[in-house]
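note to self: dont lose this again. the chain is below, predicted strucutre after it. 118 aa total, dont forget to put it in the shared folder this time
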Amino acid sequence: MDALCVRKNDLSLNELQDAGWEKADEGPSPYLQLETAERKRALERGISRLPDDQRFALVLCDLQGMSYDEAASAMECPVGTVKSRLNRARAALKNILSTDLELFSSLQRPNDERGKTK
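---
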């Protein structure tokens, strides 16, 4: 009998939705959205600081997915030059971003109740 009394006071999600209540957004938490946006901006700033030839190689190969041969054709240079520029670009970008990434890793991430931390 007590179980029936308790159940009588409970509302199901369907009942709440029928009453006009909306289910909470199940997407990433606002903190994770902010962190993703900040990382994207840091990456864009880092790429913009690269020398033109390195930036071009990085964008063509890593962002646009071109092969070394395709990038060499677009850049009008040998494949070996594309590879060396890409290697230098990645190393330079790693150095540029190291400060920003240290900042991110030192932040205390709040607990995400839904367990969707990345």
